Amino acid sequence: MIKNIYPLGDYNTQQIREMAEAMQDPELDKDERTDPNELLALRPDAAKDPAAFIRAIPPEVAPFIVPDAFAGSAGPAMAARLTIPQLEHIGAGGDPFLIEAVRANLEIARGKSPDNQDIKDLLEYINRSPAWQL
Amino acid sequence: MAALTMENEEAKFENEPAFDLESLTGPQPAEEQDWLWQELEGRVAGGALERTSKYLDLPYEERELLARAETSARIGATAEQFGLTPRETAALAALVKYAFIGEFPKREFTVTMTRLFGFDETKARGITHALQELLDKAGTFKPLEKKTRAAIAPELDALPRVSAERRETTPPAGGTTEAPQGSIAPLPPQEDAPFILHEEQGASGGPLSESAPDAIRPSFSFRPRDEQKPPQPPKPVSVRIETNKDKEEDGAKTRIVHYSKFRTPLDSDSSNAQ
Predict the structure, then answer these.
(1) What is the pLDDT of residues B37-46, one digit of tens each?
(2) Which of B32, B53, B63 would best serve as a mutation to test chain A binding (most A beta carbons within 10 A)?
(3) Cβ neighbours around B81 below 10 Å, total
(4) Which tops the pLDDT comparison, B55 or B212?
């Protein structure tokens, strides 16, 4: 299955949360601890506030977001909080599954909030960008 | 006694709670994730993966150009100028991408647009003209060409090369290291042959031969470079003993030993002169 190319895509949101907590286990040595944000940047759905967290992901890291992050109920809200620079990097990255995951969730978000100008701007960019066409 | 102990152990396991199987399993994707991937695999169908592969072969600068907000805005402005629908606008953006990845020659952009959209030629030419500056950038960002060793450093290329195999078996200069096992074949004992500490082996395992130009040559050689001049033996040191026959007084003889280079007079008072 194609989704197997995303190792973190095999875990559900709760498992990712537990991984992030384990990375900061006080019993680990200081040099063994890892910043959980490095994990959450790939699976922002496991953050405490996914919509706020995804907006803070650096644009150059955005192409590495695992599509499974948009699978849950927080997917549309997260997609709606993406920024144009993040979408530019995702488009340049060329991952077709991430591109379609974002597009699908933005379409759902527009259905929920048809007057939201931010969502309109994001969809307008995606619709007119050659990088976002498959 | 042992049987009773065994029975107690088995009873102990029977009373223990069952393992929590879920805690022992690995990844457990949620049902929503499976739904998402069913949707994604439906969306990314047909030749999308092939076109993605071609897109990823583009230099990053071209991909970055196609993803820029300014590029999206230009296509949007062109679409509005010529009254394209949102669906036609997305198709026009896709056509621009296809021109970049070489799905068709970019000089055929107008013809392709006419064929796919059903536009008249005037409209198609107008759209092409509006996007010409963008289309002209297709293929301008070329990946770095791989340069050969000779192109980068011709003086290095002229030096004889040592193969990786020889590099592994040749011990480093300086210091003592154990020779790798089996790297140096023992030579058969030969009479009246010069004592050779180590004989260079060729790639085939045999001794090196200078007559084979393709043989692997080390950077040094025990054999003389010029075979026309036979090796000359070193000049022996001439020794001449001079005795003072005229002055044989008191039985003492003065002997002077001349070497070809050095003059070492012996002490006449020395008792070792005998």
Answers:
(1) 999 999 998 8
(2) B32
(3) 11
(4) B55
- Report the complex ipTM: 0.93
pLDDT of residue B53 exceeding 60: yes
Give per-residue pLDDT as tens, B66-110: 999 999 999 999 999 999 999 999 999 999 999 999 999 999 999
- Cβ separation of B28 and A15 shorter than 8 Å? yes
Cβ contact A102:B40 at 8 Å: no
CB atoms within 10 A of CB A96: 20
In the Cβ-directed half-sphere of A37, how many Cα atoms lie within 13 Å? 8
Give the residue from A102, A107, A128 with the most B CB atoms within 10 Å of its CB, the best one to mutate.
Answer: A128
Nearest CB among B33, B55, B72 relative to A12 is that of B33
DSSP A116: -
Please give the sequence-ordered ranges of beta strands (E in DSSP) within chain B, or none if there are none.
Answer: 239-243, 255-259, 263-265
Instruction: Give B216-225 pLDDT, tens digit per residue.
Output: 555 554 455 5
B chain contacts of residue A132, beta-carbon cutoff 8 Å: 67, 93
Q: For residue A124, list chain B residues with Cβ-Cβ distance below 8 A.
A: 72, 76
A 10 A CB-CB count for B34 gives 13
Nearest CA in chain B to A74: B32
CB contact under 8 A, B27 and A131: no
Residue A84 is classified by DSSP as H
Residue B20, C-beta contacts closer than 8 angstroms, at least 6 positions apart = none
Q: Which of B112, B118, B81 is nearest to B94 (CA)?
A: B112
Q: Model-level pTM greater than 0.80?
A: no
